[in-house]
Amino acid sequence: MSLLPDLKSAGVMGINSRNGDYIMRYNPRRLFPLVDDKLISKELAIQNGLPVPELYGVIRMLHDIRKFEQLVAGKEDFVLKPVHGSGGNGIMVIGGRSRERYRTTTGRILTRDEIAHHMENTLGGQFSLGGQPDQVLIEYRVKFDPVFDHVSYLGVPDIRIIVFKGVPVMSMIRLPTRSSDGKANLHMGGVGAGIDMRTGITTNAVVGTSPVHEHPDTGSPVVGLTMPHWEAMLDIAARCYEITGLGYLGVDLVLDATLGPLILEMNARPGLNIQIANAAGLLPRLHFLECLELDGLSVPERIALGKEATNRDPREITRMAVA
Amino acid sequence: MNRRHTFILAACLFLAGASLFLYKVRTLGLPLDAAQETEVWTMEAHVSFHRDSVGAAKAHLRIPENPFGYRIASENFVSRGYGLTVDERANERQALWAVRKVSGEQSLYYRLSVYADPTRKGNLPKPTFPKVPELEEPYYSAMMDLTSHVREQSADILTFTSALLRRLNDPTPEENISLLRAGARTPMQRSKLAVTLLAGARIPAEIVQCVRLGEDRRLADVLPMLAVHNGDEWIYFDPQTGELGFPSDLFPWVWGSKPLIDVSGGRGDMVEFSVVRSLQPTMEIAQERAASLGSKIPEFSLLALPLRTQSVYGVIVMIPLGALLVVLLRNFIGIRTVGTFMPVLIAIAFRETQLLGGLLFFTLIIVVGLAIRAYLEHLRLLLVPRLASVLTVVVILMTLVSIASHRMGVDTGLSVALFPMVILTMMIERMSVTWEELGAKDAITEGIGTMMTAVLIYLVMGVTVLRHVLFVFPELLLLVLAATLLAGRYTGFRLTEYRRFKAMAADQ
Question: Chain A: residue nearest B436 by CA?
Answer without folding.
Answer: A89
